[in-house]
Amino acid sequence: MKIESLRRLRGPNVYLSRPAVVARLRLDELTGVETSDVTGFAERLLRALPGLAEHHCAAGAPGGFVSRLRGGTYFGHVTEHACIELSQMIGRDVSFGRTVSAGVPGLYDLIVECPIDESPDSSLPGELLQAAVDLVAGVHAGLDFGHFRLDALAALAEREAAGPSTRAIITAARRRGIPVERFDDLSLLRLGWGVRRRLAWAAMTDRTSGVGVDIAGDKQVTRRLLAEAGVPIAEGGPARTASQAVDLLVRLGGPVVVKPRQGRHGDHVTLGVSTAAQVERAFRAAGEDVIVERQLGGRDYRVLVVAGEVVAAAERIAAHVTGDGRATIAELIERVNADPRRGTGHSRVLTRVDADEELLERQGWALTGVPPNGLEVWLAATANLSTGATSHDVTERVHPDVARLCLRVAALLGLDIAGIDLRLPDIAEPVPALVDGGEVTGGVLEVNAVPGLRMHLAPVRGRARDVGDAIVRAMFPGGSDGRIPTAAVTGTNGKTTVARLAAHLLASGGTRVGLTTTDDVRVDGRVIYRADATGPLSAQMVLGDPSVQVAVLETARGGLIRRGLGYDWSDVGVITNITADHLGQDGLETIEDLAHVKALVAERVREGGTLVLNADDPWVRNLVERPRVRADRKRVVWFGLDARQPVVVEHLAKGATAYLLQDGWLTQATGARRTPLMRMAELPGAYGGAAPHVVANALAAIAAARALGAGQEDVVRRLTEFDWVVDNPGRATLLRLGDVSVFVDYAHNPAALAATLRTLHKLWGPDRCVVALTLPGDRRDDLLAASAQVVADGVTRAVLYEDEDPGPRARGEVSKLVEREMRARRPKLTAVPAQGYEEAVPAALRLARSGDVVLVIYEKLDPVLELLAQLGALPVGEAPVPVRLAPPKRPSPASVLFGNVATGRHAAYSGWHEK
Fold it and tell me: Whole-prediction pTM value?
């Protein structure tokens, strides 16, 4: 068996609502072989992975998979379950898997769930799948495996796992419905969207003062700042030479603490130092830039302050073992480290214990010693969790005086989140006031700007504190979910136009809209990224922009299948139509398959959100019957050109809302009430009503904008301001070149081509159309043939060309197929081959007669516009009849046709179409 490819679905997808990984698995010699065909396979596999006995599989109860295994199942299915079991064995909480045929014998897609807090770039899913493949292949070959590569996989999982602090914030955010995204394998989180977006790095937020972080990182600066504010701290000072450190010991008297001036996690901190020799050793160990301070008596405490509130407090107990009179210290340490909560680093709630042999020696012990029953032997001098310490929750015991002190300390350093380390006789008692010349008996040891949360999340004794929630509440006060209004637009045709129109309508009053489409990503009307931007990465580009107030996301089939959604929920989902296109790709064989994929946008509209659906499309109408769409929990708004559609009539009878074409008006209908919005003849891009599909697109966009709160008057006004040429380039764009009209469009499937040609026939007549046609090479033969037949019915002259990239086909193959089908449909058709758009467009213009229209179907818009500009074509608004235009004042590249895309306006175009 071999894994041919691996892809990550980073959000909700067609398989489940959580992230997943999809592996393309080739079985090779195991093609057609079932587990029951291999003697002893089931028993050997269960010896290797006994946990498989608990897998439900399709049976819905433990043992279901074993029944399938013994009764006979294919090896792709076995590999899926092996991967899930290996994941669970290393503590990776996953349970969902599915194996589906990839359409070729012996080729399967394995879909396995990924933990929601795992980095989208994690290498662990691939490693687990490969381990599962190797294990199943080995068992098939007659080998027995024990814990197969588990140690290496577990170590990788621990390295990449979010730490307890990060997990606590993720959990709290998700509980509140706040979107949260983890970056790489770091502790950096992005919470919320757009203008409500916040960043957190472990327990530090984007509002944490950089000055405060630097102050807390320098222990001497912290000491001075606190001392000058009257905060009790241990007497001491800095030392940069060993002699200075010894002088401080002499002045202070022992015992003292020697610690790095800029240390962390208790590293290289030495307590109980009483002699010059000890000071010198501690000085060198701490990096020769140290703080020497008197060691205070009492207990070690950590108080967590978040946004001016004490949210948790813990007493920290240094790592130690308690003798039983039988075991050595080394054996006692081994028992302590057997606790599954302990691990290396900070990935678990407790850290493994290592003995400080010098400290043991000072207590008169060695690792081989056997301490008597009940005797505590200390293994670390500091009470940091990173050195193996444990914690006891004391939040409810904190004296108000101690709480006030901690709040004051956090404010003095300017920190929104701070961990205050204290040494006090008892945190339940007030802190003694400072007396000039008096001895400090308790006070502040350090201030931590990025405090670890482990000690509060899982104390060994006492109540766990949900400090992650405290941080999230501080970042998102008032119950905010951190979201901005978001609309997702999908369908086969028209989705780019609908998305652009909706974004334009929502931009009223200076609202900053983020928009993704087939052509680019725009923020506040300016292009920030040029590409086919209809997948999850583009969606995250918009949602992660802190200037965006509203998001409109065109969401295409390819991104949905290959990468999943780039968001968890939207407020509005728009489905324009579902018709034959892209069949034969990505496992889509029928329109029903395509509808299943598009339905994901409808399924992921939040409860109480709005579904905007095309009442004229039967596939779209059927979506409301799908269980996962759950239309009963969402507001459905229909749009369409036929106000007599039964679904619309029934909908309005219930008092609901639809957006319809009635008596030549774009109309909002609610119950029996009808509110005319705009005459169809005045709608930009509709060419006086000759393009009804544009009317349908406008109705969908109006419905989406209104659902997101746009006012009726604003919508109508913004609609009249929509400049079709500038704001929707390459979609039904009309130009003039002499006495010939040029109509530029992106139609690539039979339905889109038919709609475009119907428009041209209404404007120019059926015999006045010439086409420069390219069709994508990744389409199935029957779809190419259907498109060719539609074009043959609509034109008398054609120039056929191919894009630079013919996809999976040989160059010239698509053009030959299209020509064959067109000639079969219209034998007298004039068909001219061309090499690329550079030849095709001039050739089509030569075929045109005075008063004709040349339809240019393109694959890449900008080069075609550049060429048309060089030929002298100029935009003419929507006039379908010959007009004489004023000449341009300067050369006309594509930017003169459509303006500077970055500014969204055309500098020299205004008024030409009026002359």
Answer: 0.87
